[in-house]
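From the pipeline queue, job 12 of 40. The input is one protein chain; the requested action is below.

Action: predict structure.
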Amino acid sequence: MFPELVTDLLKDGYKVSFSAPGHSMYPTIMANETVVVGPVEPSAVRKGDIVLFRSNGSLVAHRVMGIVKDDKASEYSTLLKSFCPEEGPSACASLDGGDCPSIQSRFFILRGDAARTFDEPVTAEQVLGKVISLERNGKVVNPYSLKHKLTCWAHRWASRLKR
């Protein structure tokens, strides 16, 4: 019920906020921090953005590591083969979606900051919104600010040195 409510609110143009339950975006987003997500058009999503998407009925917020346009789909055939018909990704290589009904104009390659592997490619229709801010210790944090990025970088290196 919660994923459907969030989906409807974002599609209607509202911002939503909720507590992040997992550790997949650590240290950018800590477990149980409040995440504020605003609606976004998939065409406005850029590499480095943190997007909220639906996957198997769940909501997931992960960072965009790459954007694959349909005309380049054949270069990513191993990642995209599950989205294309039996003829393969080359059948889906046209910008208008061609013969592949599940392909929009873009695929998003996503990964949690704490993960070493990529998620399965996400279609444009799965993208619901973009993380616009976090609430950490009573303060609003911009996850795209240089200060926040440097803090996360320092935290990652400190964690590596502890090992």
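Job complete. Residues 85-104 have pLDDT under 50 and may be disordered.
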